[in-house]
Amino acid sequence: MRGSPLFLCLFSVSCWVHLMPTAGDRIFHFGACRVSMSMTEIRAGFTAIKANIQSRDPIRTLSILSHPHSLHKVKSSDRCCITYQLFTFYVDKVFKHCRTEDSFVNRKISSIANSFLSTRRKLGQCREQNNCVCGEESTEKFKQILANYEGLNVTSAAMKSLGELDILLDWMEKSR
User: Fold this and answer.
1) What are the pLDDT digits (tens) for 142-155?
2) Count of alpha carbons within 13 Å of 42, Cβ hemisphere only?
3) Residue 84: enclosing H or E segment and its boundaries?
4) For the purposes of burial, counting CB atoms within 10 Å of the CB of 133, is it exposed (0-12), middle (13-18) or buried (19 or more)?
5) Could you tell me the sign of the dihedral formed by the alpha carbons of 61, 78, 120, 170, in that order?
6) How far apart are CA 167 and CA 151, in angstroms?
7) pLDDT in tens, 85-141
8) Largest CA distance in the chain
């Protein structure tokens, strides 16, 4: 039994270290759900390719994410739901169709997609615990975003959505 206190101490430290966000990670509160993610890494990747991606967008008069009231005034209780829906949207629809002839750009897109996938998994765990409920307002806002996306051909819509990633990131940071 002499090893028990030492084992308990090591186990406690191990759990504490595992639960701590890694360097550069920030904790975001999406309603009742808390998620750590590396916003710095995502922003750096996006900044490196933003001009390239946005130059591929021939339709400057339409926006996928900033349609009036798309992300504005989302209730705190709906933030988990709409964030999960948006991350699913980016993982399932946007990143899949954003391929370029530039391997550097493709690697950055892949890195951002992996970060989104990881965060979506964390948000999915909240949904499984019923901490991520979708209200009518967030459902309507997301339907509007999908309608904007589906109004374009797949590649144009994907590139436009990726080019607007900073709108989503800014919204997340402002309502953090």
Assistant:
1) 999 999 999 999 99
2) 24
3) helix 79-89
4) middle
5) positive
6) 19
7) 999 999 999 999 999 999 999 999 999 999 999 999 999 998 888 778 888 888 888
8) 71
